[in-house]
Predict the structure.
Amino acid sequence: GNSVTQMEGPVTLSEEAFLTINCTYTATGYPSLFWYVQYPGEGLQLLLKATKADDKGSNKGFEATYRKETTSFHLEKGSVQVSDSAVYFCALSDLRGTSYGKLTFGQGTILTVHP
Amino acid sequence: GAGVSQSPSNKVTEKGKDVELRCDPISGHTALYWYRQSLGQGLEFLIYFQGNSAPDKSGLPSDRFSAERTGGSVSTLTIQRTQQEDSAVYLCASSPDRAGGAPLHFGNGTRLTVT
């Protein structure tokens, strides 16, 4: 079945540091890929997405590129801020059969950014 | 506009009791999902409703768990004879269609504690 594996956290960085959170996936076919973010005390919200190979999703300075050859969708940001402290979830959307559209999530990575 | 609403926000129950968790999706959204988020775990898929199609129940962990969606709108997740391992945050999400690229809109969850 489909699965998503994220790098284990927690990740602790200083403000303005470079961020990478690794995500790899296993899927049948060509799923859509997503990063969701959960800020403290809030619900999950979509951060960015990519729907086909070589697409780059971007939002709020974050980027991720859909790499079919390495089955990866790593999240990057060049300069993190304290306000980026949150839990980040990588996810894929099944595009086959009766479960079309169902999201499978990774285990989440806690990011803490210190001033 | 109104987002996904879940109630109650917190529920404490004794082991062996039944509980009902409610989800009001965004009006007009045809897809509705239930996930479970346990401490240190990712989001565990429970069940997926899409329009009038038969729901995908493949994620329900046991026959103590069931869910309904009435009139294509409100959904109720029922857990019978609750166990301590059922303690988690139960998240509901809705989506405007079954397209694989459509984002999910999450509620803030119901935190269930089984004592």
